[in-house]
Design brief:
α1 crosses α4. The mean pLDDT is 92. The protein has one domain (11-66): Transcription Termination Factor Rho, Rna-binding Domain, Chain A, Domain 1 (Orthogonal Bundle), CATH 1.10.720.30. 71% of the residues lie in helices and 0% in strands. The longest helix is centred in the first third of the chain and has 20 residues, at 11-30. The protein is mostly helical and 68 residues long.
Length: 68
């Protein structure tokens, strides 16, 4: 079974939907990074994830598993 495509889904859209669906605490449990645990915001998370490929990949995987 192949994973769903992320074509047309921006990182900001992923984060927004994940926060609405599971909240920051559950996201921090799934992907333990400071931008999800310490005063989380979409803006700070985007900045971190754009600079950190391994964390972005984990968030993309979480999105695929949870919402796609």
């Amino acid at each position: 079974m192949s994973k769903p495509s992320l074509e047309g889904v921006t990182l900001e859209m992923m984060l927004t939907r994940l926060v609405e669906h599971m909240g920051w605490a559950a996201m921090a449990e799934a992907v333990p990074v400071n931008c999800f645990t310490n005063e989380p915001s979409i803006k700070s998370s985007l900045k971190f994830l754009r600079r950190t490929p391994w964390a972005r990949a984990k968030v993309e995987d979480l999105y695929k598993e949870t919402l796609a």
